[in-house]
């Protein structure tokens, strides 16, 4: 994606988005951004990625995983596969994946049922 910046704004070689979010500092422009998905770090030259692209960085697919975005302060937001995430948005800290479980149509059918074996 194209990077836009003012003439006086420097472009750093690499920026760790989690570090800046934890310090509460705005994310500067960079040639590459280092981000964390689950317990692994990845590097991208894009400022904006879709949920599907973020999952692909981690070697996962939207069919098998949900994606969550953790913000500074602990707020967690769901990210859909087609949703665009701006890595430079203030407070973006890291990402988490959650496996989708196969319920075979049984979800909710046993809620409130007492096992009396």
- How is the largest sheet built, in terms of strand order? 1-2-3
Please work out how many helical segments DSSP would assign.
2
Instruction: Show unreliable segments.
Output: 107-115
Structural class: mainly beta
Approximate helicity band? 10-25%
The biggest beta sheet is recorded as: 3 strands, mixed
**What fraction of the residues are assigned to beta strands by DSSP?**
35-45%
Walk me through the topology.
Blueprint: E1 12-16, H1 17-23, E2 30-37, E3 40-44, E4 48-50, H2 51-57, E5 65-71, E6 76-79, E7 84-86, E8 92-99
Parallel strand pairs: 1-2
Antiparallel strand pairs: 2-3, 4-7, 5-6, 5-8
How would you describe the overall organization of this protein?
The protein is mainly beta and 117 residues long. Helices cover 12% and strands 37% of the residues. The radius of gyration is 18 Å and the shape is globular. The termini are far apart. Mean pLDDT is 86; it is low at 107-115.
How would you sum up this structure in a few lines?
With 117 residues, the chain is mainly beta. It has 2 helices and 8 strands. The strands form 3 sheets. It has a 3-stranded mixed β-sheet with strand order 1-2-3. Strands 6-5-8 form a 3-stranded antiparallel β-sheet. A two-stranded antiparallel sheet has the order 4-7.
Top keywords for this entry?
three-stranded antiparallel β-sheet; 12% helix; 117 residues; three-stranded mixed β-sheet; single chain; mainly beta
